[in-house]
Specification:
This protein is α+β, with helices and mostly antiparallel strands. The protein folds into 2 domains: 61 residues, 434 Repressor (Amino-terminal Domain) (Orthogonal Bundle); 122 residues, Umud Fragment, subunit A. 20% of the residues lie in helices and 29% in strands. It has 5 helices and 9 strands. Strands 2-1-3-4-9-5-6-7-8 form a 9-stranded mixed sheet. Helix 2 packs across helix 3. The radius of gyration is 19 Å and the shape is elongated. The N and C termini lie far apart (39 Å). The relative contact order is 0.12.
Length: 221
């Protein structure tokens, strides 16, 4: 296995993912072009990541970590061991995806940008896909989603009537609701009958961030 001698302290205060990509790439003697080819992106994209112009999307994070032989946890947060774990065969293959913060399962609110707060294991079928995790806050989607549930959100699934989606409203607020349409209205409907739906007219602006495809519920916590 290729060994890399990394500089002792690769975590600086305020260091970005792009900065860690550059440090690990240079420490491993890898060019931007070689990294781009290994993960299947244009050369310019790696340069943009390293300069902080854009951040890599969730679909590329695992591929970047593997190509640089670093741990996904370190790449995302600067914490934990730098080198990735040894690859072992498993009867239950999983993939790791980042959880970025909370999304309200109640009245919408702006959670800000808490960054990556943890990693969760998901089925290996999601490896390489544009997915990320969020933590549900509130009970407007009960019993489908409970307060504290981890949900896996896919940006590569087309939203359609009846699916549970994460939506960013015009004021920059986020919410998770079931998508409904009626005439020209878009309805963000709670599964909990004690909550009122959010009704949006064609004049209202909103963006569907992704579709909830998996729910992870922790018991006795």
């Amino acid at each position: 296995m290729r060994k890399i001698n990394y500089i002792t302290n690769m975590r600086d205060k305020g260091e970005t993912i792009g900065a860690r990509i550059k440090k690990a790439r240079e420490a491993g003697g890898m060019s931007q072009l070689r990294l781009a080819r290994q993960i299947g992106v244009p050369f310019q994209r790696v340069s943009e990541w390293e300069r902080g112009i854009v951040s890599p999307s969730a679909r590329y994070l695992k591929a970047i970590a593997d190509a640089l032989s670093v741990s996904l946890d370190w790449l995302l947060s600067g914490r934990g061991p730098v080198e990735g774990p040894e690859k072992v065969e498993s009867s239950f293959p999983i993939s790791q995806v980042p959880v970025y913060g909370t999304v309200p399962g109640g009245p919408p609110y702006d959670p800000g940008d808490p960054g990556v707060i943890e990693m969760i294991g998901v089925p290996a079928e999601y490896s390489g896909r544009d997915v990320f995790g969020l933590i549900v806050k509130g009970d407007s989607m009960a019993p489908t989603l409970a307060d504290g549930d981890r949900v896996l959100v896919a940006r590569d699934v087309k939203p359609r009537d009846g699916l549970v989606v994460v939506v960013r409203l015009d004021a920059g607020e986020y919410t998770v609701k079931r998508l409904r349409s009626q005439d020209k209205l878009l309805i963000l409907s709670p599964d909990n009958p004690n909550f009122q739906p959010i009704v949006l007219s064609p004049e209202d602006s909103c963006e569907v961030i992704g579709v909830v495809v998996e729910v992870i519920r922790r018991l006795n916590t």
